Each structure stands twice: as structure tokens, then as C-alpha cells.
Amino acid sequence: MKSLSFRDKPLLKRLIAPVVLGVVIAFVPFVFQLSPYVLNIFMQAATYSVAVLGMTVVLGYTGQLNLGQAAFFGIGAYAVGLGTVAIGLNFWISLLLGIGVATVAGFILGLTTLRLGGHYLAMITICFQQIFDLVLVNWMSVTRGPDGIPGIARPSIFGYVLADDRAYLLLCMAVLYATIYFVWRLPQTRTGRAMRAVRENELAAEVTGVDTLRVKVTAFTLSATLAGIGGAFYAAGFAYISPDNFNFAHSIEFLTMVLLGGAQSPFGGAIGTSLLILLPEWLRFLKEVYLAAYGLAVILIMVFLPTGIWGLVRSRMDKYKKPVPIDVDSIPAFDLKITGNDPSPILKLDDLKKHFGGVKAVDGITLEITRGTVHALIGPNGSGKTTLLNVLNGIYKTTSGSVVFEGIDITEKKPHERAALGIGRTFQNIRLFPTMSVVENVMVGAQRGNNSIEAGSEALRECALSALKFVGISDKAELIVQNLPYGHQRLVEIARALAGHPKFLLLDEPAAGLNQTEKKELGDLLKRLRGHGLTVFLIEHDIGLIEQISDKITVLNFGKKIAEGDPAYVLRHPDVIAAYLGETSHATA
Amino acid sequence: MPLLELRDVHSAYGNVQALKGISLHVEQGEIVTLLGANGAGKSTTLRSISGLVPVTSGDILYDGKSILRTVPEEIVRLGVAHVPEGRRIFPGLTVKENIVIGTSARGHIPQAQMESEVEEMYQIFPDLKRLSDSQGWSLSGGEQQMLAFARGLMSKPKLLLLDEPSLGLAPIIVQQLFATIRTIRTRGTTVLLVEQNANMALSVADRGYVLVTGNLTVEGTPAQLLNNEEVRAAYLGGGKRAEAV
Fold first, then answer.
1. What residues of chain A, 371 to 400, have a C-beta less than 8 Å from chain B?
2. Within chain A, which residues score under 50 in pLDDT?
3. Which of B64, B134, B172, B213 is 20 to 30 Å from A485 at the Cα level?
4. Quick one: pLDDT at residue A375?
5. Are residues A375 and A486 in the same domain?
6. Per-position DSSP letters for A378-399, written without gaps between them
7. A61: exposed, middle or buried (C-beta count within 10 Å: 0-12, 13-18, 19+)?
8. How are strands ordered across the β-sheet holding A374-378?
9. Chain B: nearest CA to A517, how far in angstroms?
């Protein structure tokens, strides 16, 4: 199984360089005589970085814009400030309180906002930030208002008070390193992969089986938690906090830090934070033009390094990375795991309607699909074929009528819940996760709910590779999917659906953009799938392909069924010829 | 003098070499088709001509003059229209607005003339007439494809670059579309056509080229290409798959 393992180098070996660098940085203050001022800057960089890594998760990995990170940072800081000074609690208890409050606030804000999608999160987080600021300033009896809280004590560990700046800094660095490690490992986990899928193509992620709302709320909550941790250590480090430290300008600063360093990696976040904190110090000699120079420097980095500083480093490093050879022979054969031959139809539509305002895109379709068959859906452009598929999938809510899958009414179910029942799907205009690798794309498909494979990343990867081998492109597994030619991307999409072991596969124009030879291969693939007992429902315009593979054809026109039956009957039906095929259809198509 | 001539054109996307020395010519009034597998460089050839992909070496002559240093907007003004693959229409504009926008490079056009030209497009694509006031996003995939084609025609191009025009269209529309391509030629438009549907493309073309991984391999009339064993094997679905695919 060696060839199926994740990386070319073992984890420990890859950790050596960063760990050595990290230890060196952490012990700099003990070797060189640094002024308290410089130590303060180090402390600020370390604690800010933890909050910025939260931005890496929510923005960099999941693609959601959070403009209120400073408020969550403030929650952590005020919990420690008020907890230790006003109530007299132990630092560690206050820390846990701060993390708890920040996490709960993040969860509630995320759960209520992320349902709406789009720009709402950005707007609501700005509002939250402003309200938080007003509360800090005006609720004097609790927060002590604009004066802030002085005299916050340093924590102690096993009775040893970390009063020495260097010792406390060491603690902050340890927290930062733990956070970096966690955030660095996250993308390779199930949740992390789902987050990236959401960022790359939310609709495709949902249809593939990712509970996108849950993933987004998880990312946002995690981001709030990290901000809370950073804020708590910040408060104890500086001994004094006031509302000014946690206003909107700081949220923007966190955003700038993560973008500047590179939002895709924790190293980027840490570099961006350190740079934005150190830059003003380096530029101090410029005196009155200092702010202009600072602004200019940030703009220049943003313009010339759109993926951040780490993005540049990464692309340089990737040039020296040798592609991992895939041992195709050692990949186990793919098993669709479809058993039994239940004679009942797998899918039943009863008088299904989908209207958009006055447009009756799907206007009363009643249809039964027999298990283990290839059923084709054809019809003129704009006759409602894709809309019907989107209703079957749950992307659109039905106007009326019902969809019953394997005896279960799924009319009200969300797309990812339908995927968990065994409905797979590909799209007319390919919807992959473009910057992820081929195998990662397919792994997202493999991790749908109820998929009958073993737990763990290795099993997911093995399942994904098997599915890729089944469609014949497992040698491309480690390539970035957007660099593949069109025809191969189509196959990746099919493999992604197959990896979830669907019982029912929806294909929207799978042959579009393929040449005759590739179409023939697709036809053979679909026949093999039918041989495994998979039920396929497909939209296609290539009549040659349809004739070759389909058991039954349904024809739509203006949202209504105009003909149904076996290919020989339907393709000679006068209404179908008039509306769809045209006079010379068989000679040319 | 050919209307369009490519001389040993090389181009690349980032580090990936896409075209490795393409030389071809398209005469005034011809319909020429480019065949080839996915990833062979057909779309890249069209994108190089319309200035969307930088050419690293070689030359592209249009009407006898090099257009290598010419920006895409200017190339459109010279009379080259590119109908891209994949339905790139304006989703927030109505069907009619999308069509009218195709005339942008032609300067001011009187209202009456504009109406009659739009009407001409509706005759070619009757479905678009019905959808005249619908917004672009609400169209089905195939309808968007028709719209992109109509928009390209509105610039009254001397040279029309068509990238996979039949993608996602119902057979009956594909037949109309290829009939339209023949009609366009009688209006004095020269056509360079990229198409997966090789049989269909060769049925309208005067000449064709076959592109394999960035190189031109075969050139000839439709009859010659249809009889070429290699071409049949690789692109017409007969026999074994070619090595280069």
C-alpha cells in the first residue's frame, strides 16, 4: 500500500525544518539582550497571529469574509481582563471563559447568518463589531468604559509566575506553534477538505454530499475560538486593555495581515502578521511620510503578490517538488456495491412542477425510473431538462408535486441529504473544485454521508483512487484539476460522483465537448456502470450515444412530457422529430 | 493574399507550452475547420488570434499585417469576432441587450437599422425572439449558446472565430446552426471553426486542419480528411484511439 500513502515524505521529516526555525525564534530573547519594547512587539505579533490564523480558516480555507475578528479577539481579552481584575478569577479559568464566550458568540452569529450566504456574513460581522465596540465604551459599570482595564496580571504555571517578559513570550509562542500545527493539518482532514470544497464551489460541494451550512458554521466558530485565545493572551501580556484595541480598524488589520501573508496557509498568516507589526517599526525613521510609505508598501505587496507572500514562496517551492508517481496497478478495483434486484422503481415523480414566476420550467411531470436502467432525458433547448435535474437534486425547491426515492419522500430534503441517500450528480458546465488536486476532488465525493467505506483518510483516498481507476485516469490523481483538459475534467466529475457509491446517478450532458472517440469511450463507461447495477438518468443531445446506451427515453418540451418509451419508438415519434431531432437527424447526429 | 495567416506560432499558458509552431492560412470567403482532441490547442489557437493568449514566437497576419502587438479590442475593430466556448454571455442584460452589445465596435448605428439587424438574428434563432426581454442568466445552456453566436454575428465580422458552437444544442438547432454558418459565408464572412462534431464541421468546411498536442499534423479538403485513416481513427470514432490523444 506504499504507493497509496499521502505524501512522498513522512510527516516527521517534513516537520524538522519548521520546528528548528520555530525553536530558534522562540529562544532569540534568551540569547540576545532585547529591550522590553521589542519584547512587547514580539508578544503582539504572537498573539495577533493566533487570531489571524482564525482568518486563515474562515477566509483562506472556507472563503467566507469575516470583518469582525477584532470583536472576538476583544471577547477573549476582556474575559481575562475582567475575570482576573474585577472578579479575581484565576487566569486559566478566565481564559477558558473567554474561549467559551467567543466560541458561542461565533457559533450563534454563524448559524444565523451563514444560511443567507453571499455578502451577509461580511455585513453582519461589521454590525457585530460596531455593537461590541459600543458596548465596551458605554456599559461603564461592567466594562469600565473607555478607560479600559489596567493591572492585568500574568498567569502562573505550576506555581511559577510568568512575570518575566521572556518567559511569558515563550508561552505565547508555544500557543502560536500549536495553533499553526493545527491549522496546517486541517486542510488534509475531512472537515478541512470540505471547507476547501465549499470555497471552490459551494453548489457542487452541497450536491456532492457536503453539509455546506455545517462546514461554514464550523469554520466561523473555529475562527472565533482562535481569536478568543489570541485576545486572552494579548490581555495578560500587555497588562492593560481598552476598547481602542478591539475596534473595526483592528478587524481590517487582521484581514490585511492574512491577505498579505497568504490566506491559504498558516505560515502565510504568521508572516503577514509579523510583517505588518514590524513594518511600522522599520519605517519609523521616515518620520512624517511614514504612514504614506507604510500604505504604499502594503498596496505594492497586494498588487504584485495576489496570493500573498506565502503564495510566492509556495510557487517557488512547488517548482522543485517532484510529482509523486502513482502505482496504478496497486489500486484496488472499484466496487459500486449495488446489491439485490428490487423490481420497484428507484425514483418516482408525481405531477412535479417548478415555476419561476410566470415561467413554467417544469410543468407537471410524472415519471418512473426502473432500477438498473439507463434512462435518457431529451428535448429542445430550454424545455426544462436541467431544471428537472436540479429539482431532483434539491438545488431548486419544488413548486408542487413529489419526488420519491427508494420509497422515501425526498421532496423537502436538502441536496447533501439526497447525496447521503445515494444520489450522485454531474453538471452541464463542469463544476469541480478547481485548485484542488484530482484525487482530493474525488475524496470529497467519497466522504458523503452514509458512504459504505471504512473510516479514516487512507480509506477515503483508496476509494477515490479506485473510482479514478474505474474511469481510467488514476495516473492523473496528483495533478491540480484545473490544469486538466476538458474531457478529463468530465471524467473527474463522474469519478467524484462514483466515489460516493451512488445507487442513482444524474448526468447533465456528459458528452458535450467530447470528440467522437471520447464519446464512444463514455458510452462504454456508462454501459459498464449499468453492468454494475447502477441506475443512470442522463440529459444528452448526442443521439448516437443515446441510441447506443439508453433503455428508455423521456422527451420534454415546454416543461411537459411529449413522448416516452424505448429508443426505437421515441426517436421515430413525429412530435419528437418536429420539436427536437429535425428532418435529417439520423444522417448527421 | 490570405485573410489570415499564422506563421510558426508558439504560445504558452504559464509554463505549459500550448502551441508548438502552428502555420495555417485562411483565404477570403473560406470556411476552415480545426479538428483535434481535447487539449490539443484548438481553443488556444483561436484565443491567440484574437489576442487573448500571448504569442511567444512566430507571427499572425491579418489582411497582410501583423496583429501580434494589437490589443484584443482593436482586433475586434479590425473585423475579427470571437464566439468563445462555454456561453460567455452577460447574465444581467436582456437577450436583446446582449445581441445589441455585439455592435459595440461598429460605432453608431441608427435605431431602425439596429432593429432590422436584431430581427435578422431572430430569424436565425427564433427561440431568442421569444426570450427577447428575458435576462441572460435565466436562459438554458443551449439558449445561451445561441445568444453568444448571435452576439458575435452582430459585429458584422470579416473573420468569425467559432469555438464549439454546437456544444449543448439540440440536434434540430445544430442543423440550423450549420445552415447559418453556410449563409454567413454568402454575406462575405470568412469562418474559422473549432468543433468536436467533426462530421458536421467537415460537412460545411472547404478545408480542415488536424491539431495534435500543439502541432498541425494533417491538412486537406473534407474528402481527403474523411479518407485519412489516422483522422478517422482519432476523431471520427472509428478504429483505435490515436497515440497522441
1. 378-383, 385-386
2. 1-3, 5-7, 585-589
3. B172
4. 95
5. yes
6. E-STTSSHHHHHHHHHTSS--S
7. buried
8. A423-425, A504-508, A535-539, A374-378, A552-557, A560-565
9. 4
pLDDT in tens, A9-18: 667 777 888 8
pLDDT value of residue B37 = 76
Supply the pLDDT for residue B14. 63
Instruction: Please tell me whether the interface predicted TM-score (ipTM) of this complex is above 0.85.
Output: no
Same domain, A56 and A185: yes
User: Residue A28: its pLDDT value, please?
Assistant: 85
Contact A78, A98 (CB under 8 A): yes
pLDDT value at residue B245: 32
Of A379, A483, A541, the CB nearest to B168: A541
B212-223 pLDDT, tens digit each: 888 887 889 999
Range of the domain at A154: 11-247
Number of folded domains that form chain A: 2
Residue A32 DSSP symbol: S
At position B96, the amino acid (one-letter code) is K
- Coil/strand/helix, residue B14: coil
Q: Does A6 touch chain B (CB under 8 A)?
A: no
By the 10 Å C-beta count (0-12 exposed, 13-18 middle, 19+ buried), A291 is classed as exposed
Contacts A484 to B, Cβ<8 Å: 39
Query: Domain check: are A17 and A150 in the same one?
Result: yes
User: Which chain A residues are within 8 Å of B245, Cβ to Cβ?
Assistant: 517
For the stretch A320-356, pLDDT in tens is 777 677 888 888 888 888 876 778 899 999 999 999 8
Cβ of A515 within 8 Å of Cβ of B235? The answer is yes
Residues of chain B with pLDDT under 50: 238-245
Q: For residue A481, tell me if it sits in a domain.
A: yes
Chain B residues closer than 8 Å to A382 by CB: 127, 131, 139-140, 142-143
> Which of A197, A225, A247 marks a domain boundary?
A247
